[in-house]
Design a protein that fits this description.
By secondary structure, this protein is of the alpha/beta class. It has a single domain, classed as TIM Barrel (Alpha-Beta Barrel), CATH 3.20.20.150. It contains nine helices and ten strands. The longest helix is centred in the C-terminal third of the chain and has 23 residues. The chain is globular. The model has no long low-confidence stretch (mean pLDDT 96).
């Protein structure tokens, strides 16, 4: 399993709504940062959407990545047929082995039958371009519902982008989703976390940590995925809490990235 980094490891440096640094990280900056960190794989998420780049910018990014031997994984959100076709073309341009996708968008939350029908329509394009579809387990559906989507389409070409912490939003434990989704996983998101009781004792907060400093059993997850031999890569993501100003948050985020990469390299070595 190759180690890579997602644009969601630099969410604050790229900018979130209402919190954008003076000089936001660009797509080219992101690839250069991965190279600086000694990584040869990156994953573009929907917080740095590639379809918004001009054609010449996309080509420059593709050429630079290949020149520096950086493998690019392409991602987006919104499982709409025409939108996915745009991203399959981008995935082909970058040589991405799969397209990582979050089903839902702000104004689009299809039911399982609609998801299955859309994926079935996409299968000929996936096969023709030799690109797999990695559906991220994102809050709304349970693990077995994602399994149903995969099994009702084509498990050879459709699988899972496994983000173990996401399913906390669907009231499922990491152990539970690993049991169901590990056999179908093409890509792993590593996003460590801790759970702390609120000061008034009525409820808990789920907060991010650098990799290896939280509750996620990263080594065990690696071992389980290795048994199934379907997972191409593991991509670092992070959840640092915002500080008083965006500049301070970006500095802490960068520190977490370096600390996390050092830890993950030691595990995978």
């Amino acid at each position: 399993m190759d180690l890579g980094i997602s644009t969601f490891a630099f969410a604050w440096a790229i900018g979130v709504e209402g919190q954008v640094p003076e000089h936001p990280m660009t797509a080219m900056d992101f690839v250069k940062k991965a190279k600086f960190l000694g990584l040869d794989r990156v994953q573009f998420g929907d917080n740095l959407p590639l379809h918004l780049l001009q054609e010449d910018e996309l080509q420059q990014l593709s050429d630079f990545s290949k020149q520096e031997n950086i493998k690019v994984e392409v991602g987006t959100r919104g499982l709409l047929y025409n939108h996915v076709q745009i991203y399959l073309k981008i995935s082909e341009q970058f040589g991405s082995p799969f397209l990582r996708i979050v089903i839902d968008d702000k104004n689009y939350q299809p039911d399982i039958n609609e998801v299955v029908e859309t994926v079935k329509k996409l299968l000929p394009s996936l096969r023709k371009k030799n690109i797999k579809l990695a559906i991220e387990n994102h809050d709304r559906f349970k693990a077995l519902e994602f399994v149903e989507i995969v099994e009702r389409t084509d498990p050879e070409w459709v699988g899972i982008c496994l983000d173990p912490i996401n399913s906390l939003g669907a009231d499922q434990s990491i152990g539970e989703i690993l049991l169901d989704l590990a056999p179908y996983t093409f890509n792993l998101h590593i996003k460590d976390y801790s759970i702390k009781r609120k000061w008034h004792n009525m409820g808990f907060d789920t907060i991010g940590t650098p990799a290896g400093k939280g509750l996620m059993p990263i080594k065990k997850i690696f071992e389980i995925l290795e048994l199934h031999k379907k997972c191409y890569s593991a991509s670092l993501e992070l959840w640092p809490a915002p500080k008083e100003n965006i500049e301070e948050t970006v500095i802490i985020e960068a520190r977490w990235v370096e600390e996390s990469i050092f830890y993950l390299k030691s595990l995978l070595s």
